[in-house]
Write a structure and sequence with these properties.
Elements lengths: L3 H22 L3 H9 L5 H21 L5 H21 L8 H21 L10 H19 L6 H6 L5 H25 L5 H25 L4 H27 L1
């Protein structure tokens, strides 16, 4: 890790940028923050710092929409699978296989960027939700426990349920909140949440919220589609760099 004072500056800048992305496009804070933090620290350390700002911003997103009760009933099997699979697999991100985890993180970012750039859409028939929800939840939980990133395959799946805009934003907030809580429990269970990380995580809340406010302000002043393309292109480059970094360390 960088020197303490430099680390604070780096973390602050990363969470302002991550919050800005979330403020403009409605998601991306944990993805951007974990990816950029992964350039200067181990994935487990990045995941621990992410916990509090991710929890605060996602609960905000979850509670900002309409009544969440019906959404909870519909998505309960998926959320339960996310929760259990994340806790069960959190030992992966804290394991000694750091090069594999780092490479996996880069590949997840690349896959997410490709889906965004290609605008691939998933259509989930209502009759398939009973088995698809738990399956996607389990896969998302494993990805979360292994890399600290919880967008694949949850985001494409939720986007394919035919939800209205407000319901989709709220569903994403619900999924990310469950993933964050489960990841926190999994990291704690594996002894990967030192006191310093919690202090840094609390510190990161302020720049994350500042970035979200700035993103909300920018949203009406820039073309969202142009921003979206640049966001995913940058994410692809970041993912490629992290993957190469992990592979180079293994060689």
């Amino acid at each position: 890790m960088p020197e303490p004072y430099l680390l604070l500056i780096v973390i602050g800048a990363i969470f302002v940028l991550a919050g800005l992305v979330k403020g403009v496009v409605g998601l991306g804070l944990p993805t951007v923050a974990t990816g950029l933090l992964g350039l200067v620290m181990l994935p487990a350390d990045a995941a621990a710092i992410l916990l509090l700002p991710s929890f605060v911003t996602n609960v905000w997103q979850l509670l900002a929409g309409p009544d969440v009760t019906a959404l909870l009933r519909r998505l309960r099997p998926m959320m339960l699978a996310v929760f259990l699979a994340t806790i069960a697999s959190a030992g992966l991100i804290t394991s000694s296989y750091t090069t594999v985890v780092t490479s996996g993180l880069g590949l997840i970012l690349l896959a997410y960027a490709a889906l965004g750039l290609l605008r691939l859409r998933m259509a989930v028939p209502a009759r398939a939700e009973r088995w698809a929800g738990p399956l996607v939840g389990t896969a998302t939980g494993i990805m979360t426990g292994a890399t600290g990133v919880f967008v694949i395959p949850a985001v494409p799946y939720l986007g394919g349920l035919g939800l209205g805009r407000d319901d989709l934003v709220q569903a994403l907030g619900l999924s990310f909140t469950v993933s964050t809580v489960a990841l926190g429990i999994g990291l704690w269970w594996n002894g990967a949440i030192p006191l310093q990380s919690m202090g840094l995580s609390g510190y990161a809340i302020v720049p994350a919220l500042a970035g979200m406010w700035l993103g909300g302000w920018l949203r009406s002043r820039i073309d969202p589609e142009t921003f979206r393309r640049w966001f995913f292109a940058g994410l692809a480059l970041l993912g490629a760099h992290i993957s190469w970094q992990g592979l180079a360390s293994a060689l």
